[in-house]
Amino acid sequence: MNKSDEIYNYIRDEITHERMSINQKIKVTELARQFDVSKIVVKTALKKLEYQGWVYSKSKSGTYVAPLESEELKQNFQVRMLLEPNIVVMAIPYIGG
Fold it and tell me: How far apart are CA 97 and CA 93, in angstroms?
């Protein structure tokens, strides 16, 4: 897993466990410092989150936590939470050759 994916997972978990509030501004500089990466790496994770509806951007203002009103978004997350651990387990035999 690369750093961008790690940050993506961290922010998504913070949102889903309600440790980040709806419309809360996401502080790129703090995340970059926390994960010891450049701001570009954090912004890459945020773009992926925005594409999936987890966050939204305001021009010249920043990126914010999106309202999770969409039932479809909640259902997609629940399915992913069930599938992703199994995918990792299935991939383990193929990692490293």
Answer: 8
Total-model pTM: 0.71
C-alpha to C-alpha distance for 82 and 89, rounded to whole angstroms: 12
pLDDT value, residue 81: 81
Q: What is the DSSP string of the chain?
A: --HHHHHHHHHHHHHHTTSS-TTPEE-HHHHHHHHT--HHHHHHHHHHHHHTTSEEEETTTEEEEPP---HHHHHHHHHHHHHHHHHHHHHGGGTT-
**Gap between the Cα atoms of 79 and 28, Å rounded:** 28
